[in-house]
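Is fe (iii) ion placement plausible here? Inputs below.
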Amino acid sequence: PTLLAIESSCDDTSAAVVRDGRVLSNVTAGQAVHVEYGGVVPEFASRAHQRNIVPTVAVALQRAGVTAQDIQAVAFTRGPGLIGSLMVGVSFAKAFALARDLPLIEVDHMQAHVLAHFAEPPYPDFPFLCLTVSGGHTQLIVVHDALDQEIIGYTIDDAAGEAFDKSGKLLGLPYPAGPEIDRLAAAGTPVLQFAQPDPGELNFSFSGLKTSILYTLQKKAKEDPGYVRDHLPDICAAVQEAIVSTLIGKLVTAAEQTGLKQVALAGGVSANSALRARLEAEGQQRGWTTFVPRLEYCTDNAAMIGVTANFKYVKALFAGQDVAPAARF
Ligand code: ATP
Ligand code: FE
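Reply from A.M.:
I modeled the complex. Tokens:
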């Protein structure tokens, strides 16, 4: 089938056309408005989605070389995400489907982040292990099958992306700070050590990191007021090391416990160069086959929604016009 997919869960408006599981187009409009506020402002996000959704879909159809008449079903992110943002995508999808009498397919955004691995080859085989690290989630998942995903570990407080962004905020870096920390860390050495609690099992906790950074830097600033300014690359390297080593440590434990040898990363934080390098290194040592999607498919995108919807279409898992967005599942 030829599917139109819509993603609007946070601050990116994205539309894609997916035919028989193959991505024909994937168009994303970002929102610059949030940068000056140091984070996503929900009210601005939904307004920007309203402005962007029609032109984004038009470009997605055009780039795929199809028209509205070629679309056979409409897929959309039902949640989790910002309710006002989700509302725009869900309403658009419903209206498009109603106008053309098409079936609707609702998609779980987190399931889609995992299935982004099927946007282009090489595809992992089922079952595989996936570490999803995004702005709002940190999950270890056994992917038994496309639509059978078992969460075996998760964060009890902040997500990995949030840990990067909040740490960056403490250091005066612009939002989102993750990419900036990655860039600065490349020129630094992790001489400092930031303490992090271990909540046990396969779970994560990142909220203590901010406090540890704050106290460590306050102490340093007493001896040398210019410490942060003069040691930014080293501090970033230490922040990155703290987050990445925690993620990799739990991933290794999960791989040992499940016996899975196919190991995948998903979500925006999988763009992190240290995380990618550590995954490769562990993988070589442990005989894993590793999978990291191209950046376009790691951050929020509609292609992953369309690919997930294709798995649902073949099982005739459709939604009704009464479907409503859900901020949380
Ligand atoms: P969710 O899917 O949980 O609702 P999201 O979709 O908003 O969250 P993503 O777009 O997947 O999140 O990821 C955004 C996060 O990835 C931000 O926190 C950002 O700082 C982080 N990030 C992006 N690039 C890097 C990088 N190179 N190093 C570290 N973090 C990064
Ligand atoms: Fe996301």
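Short version: The first strand starts at residue 2 and ends at 7.
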